[in-house]
Amino acid sequence: MTSAAPFSFVIALVTAVVGLVGGLVYFRGLRLAVDLFTRGRSWRWALGLTFARVVGMFGVLLLVVQLGPAPLTTCFVGFLLARVIALRSASEAR
Fold it and tell me: What would the pLDDT profile of 28-87 be if each residue is shown by its tens digit?
């Protein structure tokens, strides 16, 4: 069994930023997919976009989990922050 890398502030900051950027891309893709679905446009593009964003975020989390549980947690916190930003952006757009 391999040991996890030592947890430091730099790793926490980098993984939080990775989670934030990954989350912003994820939620932007979600918004685009929903727009495509609701406007009745090419459902194939929307389905492909959905697949791409899920696989992309899964890949990011798969890479971060190699660093250990603490970096994964800070990455998830960044992702949750991106969710808050996306929800505020969506509520202001109405």
Answer: 999 999 998 888 878 889 899 999 999 999 999 999 999 999 999 999 999 999 999 999
Domain boundaries, the chain: 9-84
**CA nearest to 74, candidates 18, 2, 3, 31:** 18
Segment 13-17 shows an average pLDDT of: 96
3-state SS, the chain, equals CCCCCCCCHHHHHHHHHHHHHHHHHHHHHHHHHHHHHHCCCCHHHHHHHHHHHHHHHHHHHHHHHCCCHHHHHHHHHHHHHHHHHHHHHHHHHC
- Give Cβ neighbours of residue 29 (< 8 Å, ≥ 6 apart): 49, 50, 52, 53, 56
Residue type, 76: F
**Tokens 């979600």 identify what position?**
30
